[in-house]
Amino acid sequence: RPRSHTVTTTSSSFTANLSASSSTLAYDREFLRTVPGLLMVTEIVLGLLVWTLIAGTEYFLYPAFGWVMFVAVFYWVLTVFFLIIYMTMTYTRIPQVPWTMVGLCFNGSAFVLYLIAAIVDASSITKDLDNHNYNSWAASSFFAFVVTSCYAGNTYFSFISWRSRTSQ
């Protein structure tokens, strides 16, 4: 008996929505040309320096450096995450999230905790601890203060953005 060679295809609404949504994902090149974008890239690069300088030492012997590592790695990962969100303009696709408030809270908390971590880092460095780790810890302390100032700048810009959204 001969078989029928008819093929029927169907398209679900989920598939149609998925293909439509993925084609509208944008890439915002101009974000990296703004001051907040430049600060965010600086936070990522110098934040990476902070935690790699500490990670290359025996930081686990000193609890203070463990705290600095936690703050540096935690905010480094979140900053990379937010950079991807801003670069792909994902925030426009999720309007239910108050992105200006999220940015303000993120940058404000990063500023405060990075400031504490930078102070802890700087105050924990002594020649008495371990001489071969001294330079790495001193450099990480310097870069932690630079990253703190970048987060302070982004907190300011986030506040300005939040303020202009709430006054409308």
From TrEMBL:
<feature type="transmembrane region" description="Helical">
    <location>
        <begin position="97"/>
        <end position="117"/>
    </location>
</feature>
<feature type="transmembrane region" description="Helical">
    <location>
        <begin position="60"/>
        <end position="85"/>
    </location>
</feature>
<dbReference type="InterPro" id="IPR008253">
    <property type="entry name" value="Marvel"/>
</dbReference>
<dbReference type="Pfam" id="PF01284">
    <property type="entry name" value="MARVEL"/>
</dbReference>
<keyword id="KW-0472">Membrane</keyword>
<feature type="domain" description="MARVEL">
    <location>
        <begin position="31"/>
        <end position="163"/>
    </location>
</feature>
<keyword id="KW-1133">Transmembrane helix</keyword>
<dbReference type="InterPro" id="IPR050578">
    <property type="entry name" value="MARVEL-CKLF_proteins"/>
</dbReference>
<feature type="transmembrane region" description="Helical">
    <location>
        <begin position="31"/>
        <end position="54"/>
    </location>
</feature>
<protein>
    <submittedName>
        <fullName>CKLF8 protein</fullName>
    </submittedName>
</protein>
<keyword id="KW-0812">Transmembrane</keyword>
<feature type="transmembrane region" description="Helical">
    <location>
        <begin position="137"/>
        <end position="159"/>
    </location>
</feature>
<dbReference type="GO" id="GO:0042552">
    <property type="term" value="P:myelination"/>
</dbReference>
<dbReference type="GO" id="GO:0019911">
    <property type="term" value="F:structural constituent of myelin sheath"/>
</dbReference>
<dbReference type="GO" id="GO:0016020">
    <property type="term" value="C:membrane"/>
</dbReference>
<dbReference type="InterPro" id="IPR013295">
    <property type="entry name" value="MAL"/>
</dbReference>
